[in-house]
Amino acid sequence: MFTLSRMHASSGLPQCAYFNVTGGKSDHMLVNIGEKRLAVKIRCSNNNLYRVSPNAMFIEPGQCQNLVVVRMAGPARSDKLILQFLPCDKDAEDCKEFFKQADKNGLRPETTRISLKMVGDQGYRVIPSREVTDDAIS
Question: What is the pTM of this model?
């Protein structure tokens, strides 16, 4: 469970999520413990191997939303998720547009980083390769 509040972005947030190099799924719950509605945007450093759903959402005060992170099979890499969030009004309807307007107005979202780490079949940590592959260059 990830707990989000306006003043304490990292309250309750894990620093790492673990996946197998053969792929996998990780379900999480984002909870807004603050008094204002939050707009949340999730960014990933590797959209070739990871799918995040939803990648943008609103969370009402005292409510929660599910976040699903799916990893496809592929080489171990050092990847991360960045969660960005801003308080917003109840009349905001399009989360992505809200973040575009906030950026134009000079508002910077609070952010927190979650490292996406690899584990092997036996539960040991896999050290990412530093080799650059052809598909990483495109």
Answer: 0.79
Q: Do residues 99 and 56 touch, judged by C-beta distance below 8 A?
A: yes
Q: What is the CA radius of gyration of the chain?
A: 16
**Residue ranges per structural domain of the chain:** 2-130
Given a cut of 80, is residue 83 above it in pLDDT?
Answer: yes
- Domain covering 2-130 in this structure, CATH number: 2.60.40.10
**Residue whose structure tokens are 């984002």:** 30
SS3 assignment for 49-109: CEEEECCEEEECCCCEEEEEEEECCCCCCCEEEEEEEEECCCCCCCHHHHHHHHHHCCCCC
pLDDT score recorded for residue 70 = 95
User: Residue 128: is the preceding peptide bond cis (ω within 30°)?
Assistant: no
pLDDT of residue 8: 39
Strand partners, 59: 38
Q: In this structure, which amino acid lies at residue 50?
A: Y
